[in-house]
Design brief:
- By secondary structure, the protein is an alpha/beta fold.
- The chain folds into two domains: about 260 residues, TIM Barrel, CATH 3.20.20; about 70 residues, Type Iii Antifreeze Protein Isoform Hplc 12 (Alpha-Beta Complex), CATH 3.90.1210.10.
- Helix content is about 35%, strand content about 15%.
- It has eleven helices and twelve strands.
- Strands 1-2-5-6-7-8-9-10 form an eight-stranded parallel barrel, surrounded by five helices. A two-stranded antiparallel sheet has the order 3-4. The chain has a two-stranded antiparallel ribbon with strand order 11-12.
- Helix 6 links the parallel strand 7 and strand 8.
């Protein structure tokens, strides 16, 4: 069974922007909820799962300065404990948003299952970690796989690993792993390609600046949009400077919802808003001159005029050669009762 989304699911990616401060994380959850997010996402990794070399350094911009520090130290101070996750899950429930995380091992998956996370996400950097993807599948939690940096073959391997392990609900996210991602690097048509090739919903992990890419992604079928989120870009940390503020995220939400209203449905029929216009602007078959009962109608006796309160122009051939049973005045719309053997 394929999940159905009635509207795009909008995720505020708080990630590590809390800097290990759980009170700040709770404030960010509330701010994301007020901005219109449907869910908040954190990273419940264990640094040792993916780093052992403490001499690997990372350079980033923070508070207007260029910072270089060991990756191990940077990630370690932002780790979340099982107790932290439980507290943040409760804060999310109180704020009315869903809560989920990005684990890096079985322990993290179990923590998310224990606290009742509604989703679980595999980050782009972990797409090749097939054993972890299989564990995600076995958890029974709806899973999101982000496909940044991936080849088609790698995506296929990940999806097959997930499904082969009995995984159910799956969403694939198109993603460009650049921060921020230039507009010409986004290739949003990949969203459609992912959905069609793998037969599951597809969305967009948005690392670009502004709201435009999020709106465009929804217009090509994104069921989910994830955007980095912070309450203040001047906070310390590697991701703050390119994250959306509450005001910016709220504008993204507003623009996406307007776009969804515009997209509407694909039914090929007049909309409710067109009902009056259809009558006012469409045409009727009307009498070209005063005609008396018994007249055998010719094409020259009929002209098309507004409003559409009589027989439509498509009935012209059905009227010709029929006899009038009543008089009709010039400009009057033909009705079925005017004609013998009504068309």
């Amino acid at each position: 069974m394929i999940m159905q989304f009635t509207k795009a699911f909008l995720v505020a990616e708080i990630g590590i922007n809390h800097n290990g401060d759980i009170s700040l994380a709770e404030d960010m959850i509330c701010a994301a909820a007020e901005a219109g997010a449907d869910a908040v996402k954190f990273q419940n990794y264990r640094t040792e799962d993916f780093l052992s070399d403490r001499n690997l350094f990372y350079t980033y911009t923070s508070q207007g300065k260029e910072i270089t520090e060991p990756q191990f130290d940077m990630f370690k101070r932002c780790e979340l404990t099982r107790a932290d996750l439980g507290r943040l899950k409760k804060a999310s429930e109180s704020a009315g948003v869903e809560f989920f995380g990005t684990p890096t091992g079985v322990e993290g998956i179990n923590e998310l299952r224990e606290i009742g996370a509604t989703w679980i996400k595999n980050g782009s950097d972990y797409l090749g970690h097939l054993p972890l993807i299989r564990e995600m599948a076995r958890s029974g939690i709806p899973t999101i796989l982000s496909t940044g940096m991936a080849t088609e073959e790698e995506i296929t391997e990940a999806v097959e690993a997930f499904r082969g392990a009995g995984g159910g609900d799956l969403v694939l996210l198109a993603c460009t792993s650049a921060y921020p991602a230039p507009s010409d690097s986004l290739h949003l048509r990949r969203i459609t390609s992912l959905a069609q090739k793998y037969g599951c919903p597809a969305g967009f992990s948005d690392h670009s600046a502004g709201w435009e890419a999020a709106v465009a992604s929804v217009c090509v079928g994104a069921c989910m949009v994830e955007k980095h989120f912070t309450t203040d870009r001047h906070l310390q940390g590697p991701d703050q400077w390119f994250s959306s503020t509450p005001v910016e995220f709220a504008e993204l939400v507003r623009r996406v919802r307007v776009a969804e209203d515009m997209l509407g449905c694909g039914d090929l029929r007049p909309t409710r808003a067109e009902a009056q216009a259809r009558e006012n602007f469409r045409l009727s078959c009307t009498a070209a001159r005063d005609l008396t009962a018994g007249t055998i109608l010719k094409a020259k006796d009929i002209v098309f005029r507004r409003p559409a309160k009589g027989l439509p122009p498509s009935m012209l051939e059905s009227l010709v050669e029929h006899s009038l049973v009543t008089d009709i005045l010039k400009g009057e719309a033909f009705q079925p009762y005017h004609i013998a053997n009504q068309p």
